[in-house]
Amino acid sequence: MIAVVSQRSRTKSWVLVVLLLLFAIVGSVSYLGWRQSVPLVHATLMAPRFLGHNTSVTATLDAARGNVRRAELRVVQGGKAITLARAEGPLGPHAQLPVTIESTALGLKEGAATLEVWGRDDFWRPLRPQERPLASQPVTIKLTPPRLEVLASTRYVSPGGAVLVAFKATDAARVDVSVGAHTFPSFAYGPPERGARVALIALPYDFSAGTALTITARDEADNATTRGVPAELKPRAFPHDTIKLSEAFLQAKVPELLPQRPPSQPLLEGFLTINREQRRQAEAEKIKVGARTADKPLWSGPFVQPRNTKVFSNFAETRTYVYEGRTVDTQVHVGFDLASTKHSPVPAANGGQVAFTGPLTIYGNTVIVDHGLGLQTLYAHLSSIDVKPGDTVEKGHVLGRTGTTGLAVGDHLHFEVLVSGVSVTPIEWWDGKWIRDRVNRPLKEPWPTICTPASSPSATSPSVSTAAASTWPPSSARWPRCSAARCSPTGTWPTSWRASIGGSRSSGCSRRRRR
Fold first, then answer.
1. SS3 category, 463
2. pLDDT tens profile 44-98
3. Helix, strand or coil for residue 379?
4. DSSP state at residue 439
5. In angstroms, what is the C-alpha Rg of the chain?
6. 51 SS3 class
7. 3-class SS of residue 496
């Protein structure tokens, strides 16, 4: 028997076949389209805007699908591409390419260049994408370090003393003035294009002859120039003292300064915690406060010791603490203890702005006055405080009253001079002649670089390499004499600075011979 298929059934079969074919075609095209649309490798480049002699950069590549198969970092300059690093895969879905660019070894020249990141993944696409940089960044090659000239510095220095240094840094993005591992700020003066700066630096009481005093100027590419600060170190001896701890003193002071002490802890242990840990905390706070300073001098003339006071503890005095006949601790007292009558008024040693008020661990109630350029004075153990942070004070302004707060045995004033938070001897700053010779004279004198002969670039301020050449002012034999055609009146110390230290305003270049 022969089956008869109706025309309607045959039509349905063909329609089904066509639909299946269309579905297969559309599905295939969609699948291929999806594979083609998968994003290429994404690349990021971490690099500075300026490249020096040795600069580290990192290229990061991420594959949207599959693995990174190839990664390459190039530098292009003058139409020439140089491969810095290349890695072949599979490298995984995430790959990094850290590179140190040695510009001189690669033959790169100063000027513009471009960093490019190239790469691809192992994900199959119907059409191979055209290769092009995945990421690029314009950079500038800088190989010439900043120019650094030491103009003047304090010639004779001692442990526990302060040093003024003046220098000129050209094309520098950052300048560090260092004493060993401690860095001090410097401050610009005059027109910015001249690049002149000054810094007050402190030699700690334990400063040794082998410690480096340096100025380092760095540009945007981290090219650096370092100069030593010329100085002759003069030894300075510091006193020793023995302090006998009484039970009454411990009972009075330990609960005050260490209220969280467990009742079962011996008083002596509490005292040692105060004398060691709280002392370190106070030193750290002084450094922190010292970073907040005016960029110009706020003081005028010598600093003053409070009237009718007697020094009974000296700067950098090594103290041996004895309890019940045995030595329990040794610390260094950085400052002067000044005795007067009970609750005596405490005057500001010089003009400035109040930078800190309040309790300061072993110092008790404390006031710190900022005098600019990192120079500050500290007044401790006060019974009362009459100023607040931000107040402007003149020399002699009453800051508070003496007392016994903190780790004080009796009513007195603990006085310190700080340079960027480092304690130095107050004797120098009480000495008007020392300030005139070591600070005011360099600040008030016109800088020698204002009288540079146009025909001799080498006649600018020389790099001082020996202590004998670091005296101020420089001899007239070393500096060319002024002429109206060559001398810039803008080279003198800013008028506002000169006025603050008692200098007269300069109308321009003096033709007098410097002596």
1. coil
2. 999 999 999 999 999 999 999 999 999 999 999 999 999 999 999 789 999 999 9
3. strand
4. I
5. 36
6. strand
7. helix
Cα angle: 481, vertex 483, 487; to 5 degrees? 95
Contacts of 260 (CB under 8 A, 6+ apart): none
* Residue 395 neighbours by CB under 8 Å, 6+ apart: 299, 300, 301, 304, 347, 348, 349, 350, 351
* pLDDT tens, residue by residue, 275-286: 999 999 999 999
Please tell me the pTM assigned to this model.
0.76
Q: Which residue(s) pair with 475 in the sheet? A: none
How many other C-beta atoms lie within 10 A of the C-beta of residue 469?
15
| 325 backbone φψ class: left, alpha, beta (φ>0; ψ -120 to 50) | left
Sole residue written with tokens 């006071």? 309
Using CA atoms of 103, 106, 112, 115 in order, give the dihedral in degrees to the nearest 10. -90
Per residue in 229-263, pLDDT tens? 988 899 999 999 999 999 999 999 999 999 998 98
The 10 Å CB-count burial string (b at 16+, else e) for 418-446 is: bbbbbbbbbbbbbeeebbeebbbbbbbbb
Encode 276-320 in three state secondary structure: HHHHHHHHHHHHHHHCCCCCCCCCCCCCCCCCCCEEEECCCEEEE
